[in-house]
UniProtKB/TrEMBL annotation:
Gene3D superfamilies the UniProt entry points to: 2.60.120.1440, 3.55.50.30
Name of this chain's protein: DUF4974 domain-containing protein
UniProt-recorded Gene Ontology molecular function terms: sigma factor antagonist activity
Organism of origin: Chitinophaga pinensis
Parts forming coiled coils: none
Record domain FecR protein: where: 164-254
Pfam families: FecR, FecR_C
Ranges annotated as spanning the membrane: 69-91
Length: 365
């Protein structure tokens, strides 16, 4: 199925509102496409296309409910193993060796790694070999960090902090083979070498993890609002909003535990823990994974919510001048690879909201 640009998508959505029959025809075409794309021959695609088909399969779950979960998860079943996650309540104490911190300033615009000894390594330019303390060799290429450590006998974990600034995304492969994709304005605290009986890291922001399987050493992801224990799988975690953690699962089994309640999730579900309000179980929203592809989907989203995303994705402070404008809704997609002006033009076209800059601050009115 072809891809249209964001402006055309807005025009299409407006046409659906004005002509309901057109939307019905379009949905029928989507159903036919979903059935066609499920054919084995069509599924023999490269890894770039696989992610798009995960998206299609999640959508086809809604269109073909009678086929159940098995068909909707067909494409990802071979690549994601079964797992159990234990999410501890908000008041869980984090171990001293992995803790939150603001050593790297939140407004820092440089991709950088802060070593356990306080040294800062600038990762803004690609480098094939960077030698840091203890003889660890870093390789910073293709928007990715890999490393090798000579000394693996040290029993004390020395925690480093990786900072991904607004407007960027990055990924890192840990010593155990775990792959972590980091969204904009996100920090990751991790050791170069895991010791003891667990593998523990700390994420503040948003990350998608493909955890290497190790039955003898659980992988524990700490966040400002709790912890996620993983045996080995892939999942998305979002901690951008204070007092909130959201975990989105594609396949597996999840146990979410609070002081007086335990919830078991099924594949294709997401769970949200909100401070002082408890948990909420919802269907997995495929839009929550699109940031990995440099896209942020907005579905009837208020301008006030949009202004939380723009600073992370473009590194610009945003102010809404008019309270009435803050309540306006927008449906569309933010593309990180495109200039912010493209998105602002789409907002003006669909909502009438205009924008201007003053003293380096983006104003929307």
């Amino acid at each position: 199925m072809g891809v249209i640009n964001e402006t055309d998508e807005q025009l299409l959505q407006n046409a659906f509102k004005e002509y309901p029959a057109l939307k019905t025809e379009f949905e029928q075409l989507q159903q036919e496409y979903a059935i066609w794309s499920s054919e084995p021959a069509i599924q023999q695609l490269d890894s770039e296309a696989d992610f798009a088909l995960i998206e299609d399969k999640l959508k086809s779950r809604k269109l073909r409910k009678r086929n159940g979960l098995a068909l909707s998860m067909l494409l990802v079943a071979a690549s994601i193993t079964a797992f159990v996650i234990f999410i501890y309540p908000l008041f869980t104490n984090h171990p001293d060796k992995i803790k939150s911190g603001q050593d790297v300033a939140i407004n820092n615009t440089t991709l950088q790694l802060q070593l356990s000894n306080g040294e800062i390594v600038d990762l803004s330019a690609p480098q094939d070999s960077i030698t840091v303390n203890g003889g660890t060799q870093l390789k910073n290429r293709n928007n990715s960090l890999t490393y090798s450590t000579k000394d693996k006998t040290n029993t004390t974990e020395q925690v480093n902090k990786l900072w991904v600034p607004p407007g960027m995304d990055y990924h890192i492969t840990l010593s155990d083979g775990t792959l972590i994709f980091l969204n904009s304005a996100t920090s990751l605290r991790f050791p170069f070498h895991f010791t003891g009986n667990t593998r523990e890291v700390f994420v503040d922001g948003e990350a998608y993890l493909q955890v290497a399987k190790d039955q003898n050493r659980p992988f524990i992801l700490h966040t400002p609002n709790g912890a996620v224990q993983v045996l080995g799988t892939s999942f998305n975690v979002n901690t951008y909003d204070p007092g909130l953690i959201k975990v989105s699962l594609v396949e597996g089994a999840v146990s979410f535990a609070t002081a007086n309640k335990q919830t078991i999730l099924k594949p294709g579900q997401a769970i949200t823990y909100l401070e002082n309000k408890g948990t909420m179980l919802t269907a997995l929203n495929e839009n929550d994974l699109l940031w990995i592809k440099g896209r942020y989907k907005l579905d009837n989203t208020s301008m006030s919510e949009i202004t939380k995303v723009l600073p992370r994705w473009y590194g610009v402070k945003v102010v809404i001048d008019n309270p009435a404008t803050a309540r306006k809704k927008f449906t569309g997609t933010i593309l990180k690879a495109e200039p912010i002006q493209e998105f602002l033009d789409a907002i003006k076209l669909t909502t009438g909201a205009e924008s201007y800059y003053k003293d380096g601050v983006l104003h929307i009115r």
